[in-house]
């Protein structure tokens, strides 16, 4: 399996010509580790399928602000097939890998049908939470020429949320809700921990900028992270 991973990393490096640090080789490695951890804790999931899907799930990287963003996972799945054939992956596993890649994307809105697809989706979404999620949020805000936050109304109490203009708004619009979308119990457990960490960051940011964190607000959730059904 070590040689298999080396070949997948080489294929990813050869195919990915972008400079997007939020979807680079290290992102793929972290998704792989998270996927294998979830699979191990569950006691199910094909290791070959998970490893290959994790490395190749962002093979075609379409910018977040592109109108073709929803097509990225399908393009990645199609691009992965010849690589997998060359590496000697059986036809059945190739189809499982392609489905997992297609279904991992938030924007594609494809329901995962296999345990490997569910695990990969969870593992990839965990990258948007916790310390890594905070770092990626502000990195992406910079790449989209957005402001970090609204200095006069941090939590949008008197304005509409707009994460294309203010990075912090993305927490309320998407990130603090992600734990609800996890497909596995194990993914939800990690997501709850990471969501709580992000809420702690937002409270600290509020304290440093003279604002009050909106306790009990449906958008800037807190207790919801502990009420997700297992």
Features:
230 residues, 55% helix, disordered C terminus, mainly alpha
Task: Describe what you observe in this structure.
Helices cover 55% and strands 0% of the residues. By secondary structure, it is mainly α.
Question: What secondary-structure arrangement, pairings included, does this model have?
Answer:
Elements: H1 2-15, H2 25-42, H3 47-56, H4 72-86, H5 91-104, H6 115-126, H7 130-143, H8 169-173, H9 185-209
Helix pairs in contact: 1-3, 2-3, 2-6, 3-5, 3-6, 4-5, 5-6, 6-9, 7-9
Summary, kept brief:
It is built from 9 helices and no strands. By secondary structure, the protein is an all-alpha fold.
Output the helix-strand order.
HHHHHHHHH
Major sheet:
none
Q: Please mark out the parts with pLDDT under 50 across 5 or more consecutive residues, or reply none.
A: 224-230
Query: Measured on Cα atoms, how large is the radius of gyration?
Result: 18 Å
Kindly report the average pLDDT value: 89
Q: Treating each run of at least 4 consecutive H or I residues as one helix, how many helices?
A: 9
Shape: globular
> N- to C-terminal separation?
33 Å
**Helix fraction bin:** 55-70%
Q: Care to count the β-strands? A: 0
Helical/strand content category? mainly alpha
Query: Strand share of the residues?
Result: under 5%
Pfam family, one: HD
InterPro entries: HD/PDEase_dom, HD_domain
Protein name: HD domain-containing protein
């Amino acid at each position: 399996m070590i040689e298999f991973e080396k070949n997948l990393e080489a294929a990813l490096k050869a195919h990915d010509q972008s400079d997007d640090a939020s979807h680079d080789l290290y992102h793929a490695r972290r998704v792989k580790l998270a996927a294998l951890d979830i699979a191990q804790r569950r006691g199910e999931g094909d290791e070959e399928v998970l490893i290959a899907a994790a490395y190749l799930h962002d093979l075609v990287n379409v910018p977040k602000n592109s109108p073709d963003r929803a097509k990225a996972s399908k393009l990645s799945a199609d691009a992965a097939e010849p690589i997998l054939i060359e590496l000697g992956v059986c036809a059945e596993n190739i189809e499982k890998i392609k489905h997992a890649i297609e279904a991992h994307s938030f924007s594609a809105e494809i329901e995962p049908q296999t345990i490997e697809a569910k695990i990969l989706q969870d593992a990839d979404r965990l990258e948007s939470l916790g310390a890594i999620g905070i770092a990626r949020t502000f990195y992406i805000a910079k790449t989209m020429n957005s402001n970090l936050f609204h200095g006069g109304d941090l939590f949008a109490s008197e304005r509409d949320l707009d994460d294309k203009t203010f990075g912090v708004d993305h927490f309320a619009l998407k990130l603090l809700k992600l734990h609800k979308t996890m497909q596995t119990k194990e993914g939800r457990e990690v997501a709850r921990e990471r969501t709580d960490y992000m809420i702690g960051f937002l409270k600290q940011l509020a304290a440093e900028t003279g604002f009050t964190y909106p306790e009990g607000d449906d958008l800037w959730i807190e207790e919801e992270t502990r009420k997700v059904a297992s």
